[in-house]
């Protein structure tokens, strides 16, 4: 059964996105103000940064007047894989997203149809758009992944981006867990790129936003909505998870206690470090494999023990007679045949 609640990453359907009206209006106003072309949206994990950026990318064109619609091209860019990027990969990813967005506008498409990307070519393409009075707006998510790859995304790279921003050739809306100024200290950068024009610190939902979220689809009863808010407080992810747990409990005819246990278990996994979450998922997947390996071990155990005994015998009898040697070889063959029949 499909529910309007999601606990699996960013919300990609506009109709399921709720709240953040102030933040969306703020991003729109800053975009329209050409003197302010760098923004940092930051907040704790799963507070809604990715969903906000993606929703802005989907809906910005409905937030500006008709005369401004041709002045901007907005794309969403996740740097989740940037830990293994080279610099050219970044330019290639930006170019691919821009090409996809302007594929019906040949005059804007041409500068991005390049096979091999370099910093200079990227700058030239942006310069061409500037002459056309078009500003690309990049909603950049998961910036920390690039910062961790410091030998590629270094001071020179970020200084060049800053120059493009100052020249009004590009605008960046950057999502991060910590503010960029804190990231600057944490990752040991000195570039002024990490001093954005404006910061948007995301907090939990307001009361009206909580009500709007828990009322999606009219699925939850009044009692369930109160319960979901009590469990999730004002945290968007926890509210989604609480609502989803209650929906699933009803679907499987389970009591409230079952929903709470499910909520607590998934919340515990969410609060684990990322690498532990990754390991937890893999270990769950390996349960059938572990069982199979255990069965194989039970079957192989006598064989392994026999091999050890024979090896010890060879060690103790440095020059066995022909009869003893044939006996030991026959024992090995018998062990192999026995184990072959049981697997």
- Calculate Rg over CA atoms: 29 Å
Terminal CA distance: 41 Å
- Strand content is 5-15%
Helix content: 55-70%
What is the class of the largest domain in the CATH system? Alpha Beta
Poorly predicted regions are: 275-285
CATH homologous superfamily placement of the largest domain: P-loop containing nucleotide triphosphate hydrolases
Q: Main sheet, how many strands, which sense, barrel?
A: 5 strands, parallel
The shape is: globular
- How many individual helices? 15
Calculate the mean pLDDT score and round it: 86
In the CATH hierarchy, the third-tier topology of the largest domain is known as Rossmann fold
How many domains, in number, for the residues? Answer: 3
SSE run: HEHEHHHEHHEHEHHHHHHH
Question: How many strands?
Answer: 5
Helix/strand-derived category reads alpha/beta
CATH architecture of the largest domain: 3-Layer(aba) Sandwich
Describe the protein in words.
The protein is of the alpha/beta class and 343 residues long. The protein folds into 3 domains: 182 residues, Rossmann fold, CATH 3.40.50.300; 69 residues, no CATH class; 56 residues. Helix content is 56%, strand content 8%. The protein is built from 15 helices and 5 strands. Strands 2-3-4-1-5 form a 5-stranded parallel β-sheet, with helices on both faces. Helix 11 runs antiparallel to helix 12 and helix 14 runs antiparallel to helix 15. The longest helix has 30 residues. It is globular and about 90 Å long. The two termini are 41 Å apart.
